[in-house]
Specification:
This protein is of the alpha+beta class. The protein has 16 helices and 14 strands. Strands 5, 6, 7, 9, 12 and 14 form a 6-stranded antiparallel sheet that branches. The longest helix is centred in the first third of the chain and has 20 residues, at 115-134. The chain binds CU-O-CU linkage.
């Protein structure tokens, strides 16, 4: 806890006891600063949260906490869809196919610098609604740590009649306890990022988007995702990873710009009243929103190469002409191999071409379930695995199916139909191993939790695959 938190917390104690300077206050806080805090709180009481609850891991919920979760979800589901505190309305505030739209629907921020901040504040107000509906004053949202527990949590797979956490709209695989693919839950790339935009963009792709499409069903599409009760636990974990990233330090920090911090979003509270809140209010979750996570875990790094997927924000800046292009590709459930010619300048032993990007453009998605692992020059004759040095990252197309793109949400600028990967280290490695002689073989392997249930139909089309130097 930093000093500012300490003072805020101490100030809150003084306020709740009504004895500024009395026995409830921490001795390190001067009477003057307490008076100042009291004055601030009188102007905006919301700046001081009286309690800071710990959001628990779903794997360690007590029976009472699980019962409260189920009561809250059932209660919200029983409310009419027109009620802003109902399950349907809250899910539609994320995004929905339903029309005509009601106030504050389709608000979710994807592919923007507010991906993390919008979802955090959205979860906070949802949590307040769910707490009241649960009948438990101490209720907090649990998180699903899918990196550690890759099966859908058991209470969400229990098909006993009346269990509100279960939905038959998930695939038989995931509802039967199939594990999410390891490449879907890898966090090492975003966690290694230092600039916030890189972290946010990488995290949004894998693990955020990859877990969405690997869960499939309602979760697999942006306009239905909020209807699956696991959505909220998934985003709670994404929110926790944001806190974990900050705690790693070494220059990791939230944007300092006033434009980012002062950006406001509007939600509904548990009384059904609209609340407008600034991003800055959520940056200290304890003081601003009244929750925190258990001490950040030491993440076990998966032995994969750190290759960044560029966020749409960054990808838009890469305008250099393509140096090599592969023909359009139609991808099904079978591994696909695309050949990309490598320019001589890139092959040259002393080449210093700056960064090299592998770009997938004009992506069209027919079937949104699953994602593709990308390999560059994998060994021939055995199925590639994400532990192989040839693994580049995941082509995650969450939100890119034609039907989803028709729903405009948040500040989504343009249909983001491009995914770009920095493969500079990979190519340097291949060049050093004198393995850059012929074309680059780009191999795409579908990963889902539904395996054999998938047909051979075309799922995804890619207009072009380019190698871009910048
Ligand atoms: Cu707004 Cu995980 O989606």
């Amino acid at each position: 806890m930093d000093r500012r938190n300490l003072i805020l917390r101490a100030g809150a104690t003084a306020l709740t006891t009504g004895l500024a300077g009395g026995a409830g206050a921490a001795p390190t806080v001067s009477a003057a600063s307490k008076a100042q805090l009291s004055a601030q709180a009188a102007i905006n009481p919301a700046i001081l949260q009286k309690v800071c609850r710990i959001r628990p891991n779903i794997a360690s919920l007590t029976p009472a906490q699980l019962a409260a979760l189920k009561t809250g979800v059932s209660t919200m589901m029983a409310r009419p869809a027109s009620d802003p505190t109902s399950w349907t309305y809250q899910a539609a505030m994320h995004a929905t196919y339903a029309t005509p739209t009601l106030p504050l629907w389709n608000g979710c921020q994807h592919g923007t610098i507010h991906f993390l901040s919008w979802h955090r504040l959205f979860l906070y107000y949802f949590e307040r609604i769910l707490r009241k509906a649960s009948g438990s004053a101490s209720f907090v949202l649990p998180y699903w740590n899918w990196t550690a527990d890759r099966a859908m949590p058991a209470p969400f797979r229990d098909s006993t009649a009346g269990n509100p956490l279960y939905t038959s709209q998930r695939g038989a695989g995931i509802n039967g306890g199939a594990l999410l693919p390891t490449s879907a839950v890898a966090t090492s790339t975003p966690m290694a990022d230092i600039p916030f935009a890189d972290f946010s963009g990488d995290l949004e792709g894998t693990p955020h988007g990859s877990v969405h499409v690997a869960c499939g069903g309602l979760m697999g599409q942006v306009p239905t995702a909020g209807q699956d009760p696991i959505f909220w636990l998934h985003h709670c974990n994404i929110d926790r990873l944001w806190e974990t990233w900050i705690a790693k330090g070494a220059g990791r920090a939230n944007p300092a710009t006033a434009a980012w911090r002062n950006k406001t979003f509007t939600f509904y509270d548990e009384a059904g009243a609209q609340r407008t809140v600034a991003v800055s209010k959520g940056l200290d979750t304890c003081a601003g929103l009244g929750y925190k996570y258990p001490a950040p875990l030491v993440l076990k790094p998966l032995p994969i190469f750190l290759i960044a997927q560029l966020s749409d924000v960054r990808a838009a800046q890469i305008q250099a002409p393509a140096s090599a292009i592969a023909v359009p590709a139609a991808l099904g459930a079978r591994a696909a191999e695309l050949k990309v010619a490598v320019p001589e300048a890139v092959k040259a032993p002393r080449a210093a071409p700056g960064r090299l990007y592998l770009s997938f453009d004009n992506i069209e998605v027919d079937d949104p379930e699953g994602y593709y692992e990308i390999y560059v020059n994998p060994p021939v004759g055995k199925p590639p695995q994400p532990t192989d040095p040839s693994y580049v990252g995941n082509l995650v197309t969450f939100g890119l199916s034609k039907r989803e793109l028709a729903v405009r949400h948040g500040d989504m600028p343009m249909p983001p139909t491009r995914r770009v990967f920095d493969i500079t280290p990979k190519l340097a490695q291949l060049r050093a191993a004198k393995a850059l002689a012929g074309d680059l073989r780009v191999v795409l392997v579908l990963r889902t939790t539904e395996g054999a249930a998938l047909g051979d139909a075309v799922r995804t089309r890619i207009g072009k695959v380019q190698l871009i130097a910048r």
